[in-house]
Amino acid sequence: MELSLHAIAEMVDGEVVGDARKTVRGAAAFDMATGDDITFATQATFLKKLSACTAGAVLVPRKVPPQSIPTIRVDDAQVAFAKVMQAFYPPARLSTGIHPSAVIGDGFRCGSELAVGAHAVIRNHVTVGDRVQIHPNVVIGEHVEIGDDVVIHPNVSILDRCKIGNRTIVHAGTVIGSDGFGYASDGKKHHKLPQLGIVQIDDDVEIGACNTIDRASFGKTWIQSGVKTDNQVHVAHNVTVGENTLLVAQVGIAGSVTIGKNVTIAGQVGISGHLDIGDRVILGPQAGIAKSVPAGEVLSGAPGMPHRLWLRVTRAIPGLPDLVKKVASLEKRLDKLENTD
């Protein structure tokens, strides 16, 4: 593919500074780009090196003055670069059609341009939309509903009655609709509570590899539109994850948690059950959240605390051994003083 800077500027709502007729054939990182590539620069470290950049063109913030290299001024250079990369490197598609080794149940309904890979299993009364790609070894349970332009990567299991929205991507090894962890104990034995609900995943969601998203006890576990999850994320039964929230690797969310919109939950965060996490909350890496969090808060640490307080706590921790010695010494001196009275 070859695109002119003019065409790219129209794609990203940008302004060309330089020769708009110049063409590029790919996108690359700032330090790796050649004359056939476009790259981007937002950090001061890279903006200072624009004159030495070997790329064919650079996406830059609108305030950047003219350079010796052609630039395209945009509101957000990283977002613009993502759009350009998608244009140059669209994901490969499966060949349209159903592989002879796939197993298709009764009552299957599908839209146009369906692709089903080898050894996929689609059980009874499944409905899928247009341009859906189901990769090899996928298992889809009964009465599952899947929207348009969905991509389901190899070895994914989407179990009975779950619902997947339009333009959703599910990466390899993920399980959607596994039983929630529910038991009633009588002191001698744990009795399984049937998990009767579903998982509903809305539009424009991307689920990472090896996620486990449990079905609800009753009702639904709900992943709302625009949510993106990293690999190895666990979402327990009856959790709601609000729109455009980010769940980073190894996040674990216990049952019946409600997470608001535009929340960022960093790697290895654990959230206790039945909590409310407000809109725009940021939870730092390895935070342990045992209480509900109001909207807009930034928490870190375990137990979770305001980020600025956590910074003070972490600075104090290395000094604790010396502090213990000082306290012990003061206690001995105090004992001597008290014993001389």
Terminus-to-terminus distance: 92 Å
Largest sheet, described in full? 10 strands, parallel
Please provide the count of β strands: 39
Name the helicity range.
10-25%
Radius of gyration: 27 Å
- Low-confidence parts lasting 5 or more residues at pLDDT below 50? none
Describe the structure in your own words.
The chain contains five helices and 39 strands. With 341 residues, the chain is of the alpha/beta class. 16% of the residues lie in helices and 28% in strands. β21 and β22 form a beta hairpin. The strands form seven sheets. It has a ten-stranded parallel β-sheet, with no helix packed on it. Strands 12-15-18-23-26-29-32-35 form an eight-stranded parallel β-sheet, with no helix packed on it.
Can I get a quick summary?
16% of the residues lie in helices and 28% in strands. The protein has 341 residues and is of the alpha/beta class. The strands form 7 sheets. A 10-stranded parallel beta sheet has the order 9-11-14-17-20-25-28-31-34-37, with no helix packed on it.
List the helices and strands and how they pair.
Elements: E1 3-4, H1 5-12, E2 15-17, E3 23-24, E4 26-27, E5 37-40, H2 44-47, E6 57-61, E7 71-74, H3 77-88, E8 97-98, E9 103-104, E10 115-116, E11 121-122, E12 127-128, E13 133-134, E14 139-140, E15 145-146, E16 151-152, E17 157-158, E18 163-164, E19 169-170, E20 175-178, E21 183-185, E22 190-192, E23 198-201, E24 206-207, E25 212-214, E26 220-223, E27 228-229, E28 234-235, E29 240-241, E30 246-247, E31 252-253, E32 258-259, E33 264-265, E34 270-271, E35 276-277, E36 282-283, E37 288-289, E38 298-300, E39 305-306, H4 307-316, H5 320-339
Parallel strand pairs: 4-5, 5-6, 6-7, 8-10, 9-11, 10-13, 11-14, 12-15, 13-16, 14-17, 15-18, 16-19, 17-20, 18-23, 19-24, 20-25, 23-26, 25-28, 26-29, 27-30, 28-31, 29-32, 30-33, 31-34, 32-35, 33-36, 34-37, 36-38
Antiparallel strand pairs: 1-3, 2-7, 21-22, 38-39
